[in-house]
Amino acid sequence: MIKSIIVALILCVIEILVIVIASPMAKSSLVLRFLPEDVRLAAKDYADPPKHKQVIAHMLLGFFLTAMFAGMIFIGVDSVRNNIGYWQLTLRFIVMLYVMKVFDIVVQDQWLVMTVGYFKKIYPETADCEGWKNRGFNNKNQIIRIIAYPFLCLIIAAVFILIKSFIMK
After folding, report:
1. What string of DSSP letters covers 42-75?
2. Which of 26, 32, 82, 157 could disulfide-pair with 40, CB 3.0 to 4.6 Å?
3. What are the two backbone dihedrals, phi and then psi, of residue 52, each rounded to the nearest 5 degrees?
4. For 28-57, what is each residue's pLDDT tens digit?
C-alpha cells in the first residue's frame, strides 16, 4: 500500500509541475475547460500562444500521461510479482487514484486556482469574474470521477490478474 501512496505522490508532483509550466504555453481552449464557466467566457477570445509553445505544452502533458500509465503498470506488475490478489490490487489502484484526487481538489482546485489565482495571471481579463470566488465550481466533475474510480480500478485490476493468469500457464 505504501508503494501506491508513493507512486501517487510522485505523480502529483509531476502533475502540478506540468500544470504550472505548460498552462501558459498551452492552447487557451485546453486550459480554460478546467476553469469556471464565466472565466471561460471572459477569456474565450484570448490569443493562443505560438505553435512551438503549444507543442512544448503538449509534450509536457504527454510526459505526465506516460508517467501516469507507467505508475499504474508499476503497481500492477509489483502486485503480480508479489502474488497479490484481485481485491488487494484493486485497493492499491483505488488508493493511488484517490490520493491523486485529494491532491487535485485541495492543491490544484482550491489552492492553485482559487487561493493563489494562478490562472488569473495567465488570463488577466478574467480577474473580475465571479467564478474565481466559487470554490465549488468543479464539484460535478469531481463527484463523477470519485464515483467512477472504483469501477475503473476493478477493471484495471482484472486486466493485471488476467495477464498474470496467462503468464503463470
Report:
1. HTTTPPPPPHHHHHHHHHHHHHHHHHHHHHHHHH
2. 32
3. -65, -35
4. 888 888 888 888 888 888 888 999 999 999
